[in-house]
Design brief:
377 residues; Aminotrans_V_dom; isomerase; pyridoxal phosphate; 13 strands; alpha/beta; four-stranded antiparallel β-sheet; 14 helices; 41% helix; 2 domains; Aspartate Aminotransferase, domain 2; Aspartate Aminotransferase, domain 1
């Protein structure tokens, strides 16, 4: 089994929240921190720009994009704020989301809407879903002549649902609507090709399923859309006398946020190398099978139900405990305190889900322990 730094006394079935970093990748992260501290001025002013360029090149190859269309950001929430505050949206305009989106990213648009006067519209996607075509058609019912931006997850956080983002982006392009895809849960869990997805904007974490250090994410802006996006943080990279020489103005404006620790970004290539070596298709399939087993076994308990057909989830799955749970905090606490299981309990709409995640370190006995704990509770 790959060497992770996880507490062996805890059954960790919550990779989807913050990920987990393998020892080899974490060691690379610490190595870059030490390099920074050896000679901070030399490292930050002279060595860092080409190092970031090399890292972006590898990320672009991994995600099917050109490196000059990608900048590193701390997380997708940062990117969502950048988009929400940059786009020329105003009264009468609408931003369309599903009702499955990650709360922090939706809040970024809610906040900007109060300032600019546009509307944030949530289009329901009912569960269980039947087909990709049905998802697209139901989502498209929310589109109006006022829709200027579609913001949608590739794999949803609260409901672990894989959405047909390429089909939605294509239909939006045909209609002249901008698209932003939240891919926080996608890279590392499924193969991602940004060129094929066709979104105008895409953001993802590297610290979740790619298993890079915390605080590493990417923000992709298609080249012909880059002039639309202002930097969220204005610093030296924006001014007339730029300190660093980069490939283009987009990177210059967005990647230099003042003094910061770039070690998490520079360790992303090590995470990609680790993924390619350790997370083979067989490992992904095994993790997916473990999640399916958890869902199937739990659904045999009276009052517990499954949510999605198997083809709509990957290494995260949902166990519907709505009929048996009235207090989500109490359930999560019991699972952790009594059974040493770290797993989220999520309230979505009027339903309660246990979201189970599996990765290379997950064992069959971990799944059995979860099901037994649910049975007891």
């Amino acid at each position: 089994m790959p060497d992770f730094l996880l507490d062996p006394d805890v059954i960790f079935l919550n990779h989807g929240s913050f990920g987990a970093c393998p020892r080899a990748v974490f060691d690379e992260y610490v190595r870059w921190q030490r390099e920074l501290e050896r000679q901070p001025v030399r490292f930050l002013q002279r060595e860092l720009p080409p190092l970031l360029a090399d890292a972006r090149q590898l990320v672009g190859e991994y995600l099917g994009a050109r490196s000059h269309e990608i900048v590193f950001v701390p997380n997708p929430t940062f990117a969502a704020n950048t988009i929400a505050r940059s786009l020329a949206l105003g009264p009468g305009d609408e931003v369309l989301l599903t009702d499955h989106e990650y709360g922090a990213c939706q809040f970024a648009f809610d906040f900007a809407a109060k300032q600019k006067g546009f509307r944030v519209v949530q289009q329901p996607i009912t569960l269980p879903v039947e087909s990709n075509e049905a998802i697209v058609e139901q989502f498209w019912q929310g589109v109006t002549p006022n829709t200027k931006l579609i913001f949608i997850s590739q794999i949803t956080s609260p409901t672990a649902l894989t959405l047909p983002v390429a089909q939605i982006c294509q239909r939006a392009r045909d209609a002249g609507i901008l698209t932003m895809v939240d891919g926080a849960h996608a890279p590392g869990q499924i193969d991602v090709n940004l060129t094929e997805i066709g979104a105008d904007f895409y953001t993802a974490t590297c610290h979740k399923w790619m298993c890079a250090p915390k605080g590493s994410g990417i923000f992709y802006v298609r080249e012909d859309r880059q002039a639309m996006i202002d930097p969220l943080i204005v610093g030296w990279g924006w001014g007339p006398n730029k300190t660093f020489h980069r490939e283009n103005e987009f990177i210059e404006h967005h990647e230099w946020l003042g003094t910061y620790d770039p070690a998490a970004y520079l360790a992303v290539p090590a995470a990609i190398a680790w993924q390619r070596e350790q997370v083979t298709p067989e490992v992904r399939q095994r993790s997916q099978d473990l999640v399916r087993q958890a869902v199937e076994l739990a659904s045999q308990i009276e009052g517990i139900e499954r949510v999605h057909p198997d083809e709509f989830f990957r290494q995260m799955g949902l166990i519907d405990v709505t009929a048996r749970c009235t207090d989500t905090d109490a359930l999560k606490s019991r699972l952790h305190d009594e059974f040493r299981i770290e797993i989220p309990v999520i309230r979505w709409q009027d339903r309660v889900f246990i979201r189970v995640s599996a990765h290379a370190y997950t064992k069959r006995k971990d799944i059995e322990a979860l099901v037994q704990a649910i049975q007891v509770i």
